[in-house]
Every structure is written in structure tokens, then in C-alpha cells.
Write a structure and sequence with these properties.
Layout: E1 2-6, H1 11-22, E2 26-31, H2 36-49, E3 60-64, H3 76-85, E4 86-91, H4 102-126, H5 131-138
Helix pairs in contact: 3-4
The structure holds NADP nicotinamide-adenine-dinucleotide phosphate.
Length: 141
């Protein structure tokens, strides 16, 4: 079992990640970065600012993605990893800016839909009988 955490480079997410790692959980982190190595570096930096660290004892996979990108910007391998391995989703990724343009703010519901799609895919893998219901829910308006 793994836990998907978004927003791991942020204030709330980094504290959450530090606490979950301390308890020995396997984590999959959705991080904005050029690639997984850069993403891992960003997570390490975020953890170090709160006095925590990441080492070989910790079971962490970074998936590059963005909450406001179509399909969360995930590579198909990472999408499969998330739907197959992650049993829990802890969503700390958010824009807490008050100066977003209206267009950018209106873009956010797409992020929510994309997140729901990933969650539904994971549910359908576990409970195939939900497939028909999930297809109806994910149909674009
Ligand atoms: N701070 C608190 O005390 C507190 C308390 C209760 C609830 N909350 C809630 O927790 C959430 C996060 O707050 P925070 O204080 O941790 O904010 P934060 O420090 O600004 O962190 C935001 C996180 O979200 C990520 N993010 C933003 N837009 C993204 C996108 N489009 N795709 C992927 N990742 C994205 C950021 O990644 P980048 O590093 O790439 O920008 C960062 O990791 C908010 O909903 C807030 O209301 C916060």
C-alpha cells in the first residue's frame, strides 16, 4: 500500500510527508518539476527547511505532474503506478495566492476533475463493478 501526496513541496504537505515517512509509509508524491530527479530534489529541499530529511530508509517515488494540467500531467507509467499502488490520497496541493487571474482561477475545476478521474480509475481497478457508474461520472458536461 502507498499513499499519494500532492503539495509535498509546500508548507502543509512537507510536514505531512515528514510525519508519514517517520511512521514508515510508502509515499508517491506528485510534484511539479522538469523530471523525477529534480522533483526529488525539490522535496528534499522542502523537507530540509522544516528540519526533516529523506534517505535510503524511506520509500518514496516522485511522479512529475501538475494539478492544473490535463490528466494531472502524469506520464502513463506514473498514472498506472498511482492507480495500482495508492490506496489513499492526501491532497495538499493548492494555490493559496490571492492575486491569480480570473482565467487561472477558473482553470482550477479541471484540476479537481482530473484528480477525481485518477481516483475513480483506482476504485474501478479494485471494484470492477463500479466501471459503468464511473464512466457516467467522468463524462464531460
Ligand atoms: N498552511 C496551513 O497552515 C494550512 C492549514 C490548513 C489547511 N491548509 C490548506 O492546505 C493547502 C496547502 O496550503 P500550504 O500552506 O501548504 O500552501 P503552500 O505552502 O503554498 O503549498 C502549496 C503546494 O501545492 C503545490 N501546488 C500548487 N499548485 C500546484 C499545481 N498546479 N500542481 C501541482 N502542485 C501544485 C505547490 O507546489 P510548488 O512547490 O510546485 O508550487 C506546493 O507544494 C491549502 O488548501 C490550504 O488552504 C493550510
Amino acid at each position: 500500500m502507498a499513499i499519494l501526496v500532492t503539495g509535498a513541496t509546500g508548507f502543509l504537505g512537507s510536514h505531512l510527508v515528514a510525519g508519514l515517512l517517520e511512521r514508515g509509509h510508502r509515499l508517491v508524491l506528485l510534484v511539479r518539476a522538469a523530471d523525477a530527479v529534480a522533483g526529488l530534489r525539490r522535496v528534499r529541499d522542502a523537507l530540509s527547511t522544516i528540519g526533516a530529511s529523506l534517505d535510503e530508509r524511506h520509500d518514496v517515488t516522485v511522479c512529475v505532474g501538475a494539478l492544473d494540467a490535463p490528466g494531472l500531467g502524469l506520464r502513463s507509467e506514473d498514472r498506472d503506478l498511482i492507480t495500482e499502488e495508492c490506496d489513499a490520497y492526501l491532497h495538499c496541493g493548492a494555490s493559496v495566492r490571492f492575486d491569480l487571474s480570473l482565467a487561472a482561477a477558473e482553470h482550477l475545476p479541471e484540476a479537481v476533475r482530473a484528480k477525481l478521474r485518477v481516483e475513480l480509475e483506482a476504485m474501478v481497478r479494485r471494484e470492477p463493478w463500479l466501471a459503468e457508474k464511473a464512466a457516467r461520472l467522468t463524462k464531460e458536461p
